């Protein structure tokens, strides 16, 4: 399955989430917001962001050794750290830098407004795909710490092994495709443009106003 864009993927996910009861939708920015916007519209649910940041391996920052989500503690891939001869303390400077960027994005996307109240609510966490799952895992643990009634992770596509590992982090995992030849999230979208902060704000504003949002942000 290849999706036309994130908006189409969100529409298809929304069909699988129709049984949700008065949920709160939390999207992982940036790409997850474009997937979550049509879900929130179809479910008539509030949409907000849950900001996460990857903790990169210093010599090769694209290699994630962990992640941190707002309101949560860093979550590390301890086996990978061990293989690299490192410890969480070895990346303390990276964690601090990512916390600063996380705080900047929270301020940019939400201002002084806090996260929605999650205790006792059904929460749907949305991203545009699962590769290693580091940021999704950090997000789910931060959400679970708020004592929601139910947590669902919803993604259009993901690595089979990563999706399987997420079933221990959420009450339910809804995924449309788990291709055995998964290499990267973007390969499963015809259009996979990078979004910036203004794109995220446009999608959130449109969701708040009850609009569809600009098509080019999909």
UniProtKB/TrEMBL annotation:
It holds the Pfam family Pribosyltran. This is Phosphoribosyltransferase. Gene3D superfamilies: 3.40.50.2020, PRTase-like (3.30.1310.20). Coiled coil: none annotated. Keywords: Glycosyltransferase, Transferase. InterPro entries: PRTase-like, PRTase_dom. Residues 10-163 form the Phosphoribosyltransferase domain. GO terms for molecular function: glycosyltransferase activity.
